[in-house]
Amino acid sequence: MRSGVSRPTTVRGPAAAARDRAGLVTGLLSGALWGAAAVILAEALTRRPLAGADALYAAPLVVAALHDCFAAVWVSAANAGGGRLRAVGAALRTRDGLVIGAAALLGGPLAMSTYLLAIDFSGASYAVAVSAVFPALGALLGRLFLGDRLRGPAWAGVFLAVAGAAVASYAPPAGASSHYVLGTLCAAVSAVGWAAEGVMVTHAMSRMPALAALNIRELVSAASYLVVVVPAFGIVGLTGRTLVTPAGALLVAASIAGAAAYLAYYRSLALIGPARAMPPNSTYVLWTIGLTLAVTGDPPGWRLVLGGLVVVAGITLVASFSGEVDAKPATNVEPLPGPKRSGELD
User: Of 29, 62, 31, nearest to 44 (Cα)?
Assistant: First the structure.
């Protein structure tokens, strides 16, 4: 029997407990949806006309472009349904909107393109295991460039996340593509791109609704693909042909899953804050491995499973010990699209 002075306990009411449960469930849902999107994208790359494209980069760039273009349509439709498109336009003309637009170039044409190259060259599970370290890299970049606090255990989390990615990917699996190493490098570039994007938009999103920020992000990325990337790489014809094939239908499904994953993640942020929302979202590494097994029937190697678990553990440490320890849930995030409230500015 223990002795000593009893410590007071904090009793959370039923409303707070329900909020915590909802935040956890939506965080896990966002991870599952992003994992599903990765598996669907990988399947689309195996279909004609994407499979067998002449240039090594052609199919991944087409998939990345169409994914972000479709996602921009779905997010814009969600905001339009809530009467918020005017707010998105107004936000785009602000300094924060321009910062998010610039960040979109890192998260879209750079990170999304290299992510799809990684999926094509290395497989969805390995690409995800490496690219998933972006929250840890984002915390490190925030410490270097923004002076954000990174406590001791968070540094250990950064190390664990990177080590987990290395364990998962350092040895090519049986039957791996001859471009496996190049795919791993592309996944690392995507992680850096998404990390830099996150650092840039974090402070901007504190002054505008997150769904407006997401809409700006998707629209800028889609426009950059359509205006610059697709013509510059000579994939206009392949893009058009893909739209009217089963591969195009798969990309529609993947973009719906991806957009829904973002919405679920923002819902989780609104309910429980980033420190508790990031770990359940990061389980998309494990969801991707499990869903790939369900679709292909090929069991994952032990290095991939162990590395994925270590990545999730590292991200959990980073989320728990970065910045303020007891970070409050975000108050600026609109959980789901809805009608304007009385007195709300356009």
Answer: 62
Contact 106, 167 (CB under 8 A): no
Q: How many distinct structural domains can be found in the chain?
A: 1
Q: How many CB atoms lie within 10 A of CB 187?
A: 27
Give the tokens for residue 232: 């510059």
**109-132 b/e (C-beta count within 10 Å ≥ 16 → b):** bbbbbbbbbbbbbbbbbbbbbbbb
pTM (2 d.p.) = 0.84
Residue 12 lies in a domain: no
Domain that residue 47 falls in:
21-321
Residue 327, domain member (yes or no): no
176 alpha carbon, distance to own chain's centre: 25
Mean pLDDT per 10-residue interval, the chain, length 346 residues: 41 72 87 94 94 91 96 92 86 89 93 96 93 86 77 86 89 84 95 87 74 89 97 96 94 93 78 72 89 88 92 87 51 44 38
Structural domain contains residue 219: yes
